[in-house]
Amino acid sequence: MIIDCHVHINQYELLQNVPNLEDRLNALQTEMTNNNVDYAIILSSYKVNSERPSTKQIIDAIQKYDNLGIAAGFTIDNHTDDDLRKYRQWIKDGKIKAMKIYSGYEHYYPYDERYQKVYDTCIEFGIPVMFHTGDTYSEKGKLRFARPLNLDEVAVDNPELKIVMCHLGNPWIQDAQEVLYKNKNVYADVSGLVIGSFDHYFEKMIKEKVAELINYAGEPRYLLYGTDWPISTMDSYLNFVAKLKIKSEFRDGFMYKHAKKLFKIS
């Protein structure tokens, strides 16, 4: 089984010429089928426009699919308490599997007290909150807000909160490995380490960094499989993770078991 915990249906990269939401979902389903991916978590964006559907639009569009869940984006600038109330109901209904904070894209630290209501909601319902960490896809992102060390404060102040550090904090993977090692309530996905497909040099470099992270942080009970599709391709990601030095007894956890439990996927 394979669970991809990090995909988008915004008009990025492979979908940049696909304006219709239903067509984008069909493209996602085709990509999942071609790569034997059983379930995927779609992340809604930090803003809504013609290229970026809202959480509500995604919920409505995926009703006919039983292999898709949603991580709902929440921002201080673009979302309200009323939005959060709606999210709470969708969480109760099992439609939202996680929340997503876009640190770096939104210019606030993840420990800003205005996010606390999101963390409290996640704790109440036992769902994780995902954070963008590391390099930003947009040049308008501000990197100091996306440093993985920022999540140490959130993890310490909210020990019951389940945290997913997206993208391994790349390029600050060494900082990410310390946050993982120190905080047992922090997980990390391997998504978005490349735009498009891996080339040989970059794949080798990232593979070595991930191996160092695993060796430092110990048993990879915290590691989650994700791609960032359509920014990254699913086939190149499967080829990449097949080469990671993860012991066979831990590989199923990485590919689906950890995510299945964390996101409450039945």
TrEMBL record:
Residue span, Amidohydrolase-related domain: 3-264
Q: Which domain of life is it from?
A: Archaea
Molecular function via GO:
carboxy-lyase activity; hydrolase activity
Q: Which UniProt keywords apply?
A: Hydrolase, Lyase
The answer, when asked if Hydrolase is one of the entry's keywords, is yes
Q: Keyword Translocase, does the record have it? A: no
Spell out the protein name for this chain: Amidohydrolase 2
**Source species of the chain:** Candidatus Nitrosopumilus koreensis AR1
